[in-house]
Prior knowledge:
Layout: H1 3-9, H2 23-35, E1 45-50, H3 53-59, E2 75-82, H4 89-106, E3 110-115, H5 127-135, E4 141-150
Antiparallel strand pairs: 1-2, 2-4, 3-4
Helix pairs in contact: 2-4
Amino acid sequence: MNLIDIMLKRRSVRKYKDEDITKDKLDSILKAGLLAPTSRNRKPCNFLVVENKQTLERLSKSKKTGAEMLASCSKAIVVVANTMISDTWIEDSSIALIYMHLMASSIDVGSCWVQIHLRKTGDGKDSEEVVKEIVGIDDYFRVVGILALGVPDDEVKPHTLDDIDKSKIHFLV
């Protein structure tokens, strides 16, 4: 499978079977995150693998909407970045998240990026602060998102090249 095929196959999967993903698949996804480029190669990102069902349930309530699938996923990866290493932590974390998202798709693991940065809980608390408290990290770490992982509950139809909106391309002369 080439890269464009993986990109077409990549979908946000929010429903998972009650099955675990293998250690080999998890390792491949984590390697992809570690291979992600970062500004000036500073590598500020750390990857917190969450397997505990109670912790996943707590994380599923870390924002008002859009995190519910964390309660039923097999594992989740909380991407945290050390702001004492880099000021491009948003970009670096985002690239790592998408590298892992694409790797998951390429090996038939369902995944969904859960946005945390700049989000609120149902009662108005800062989602990032809630996640930091749940996973127990220092204040100089920041959280852009969490990647939910699991065996997809049903087959997700891939995109096609016909789905591309070429009107978004502009050539400057």
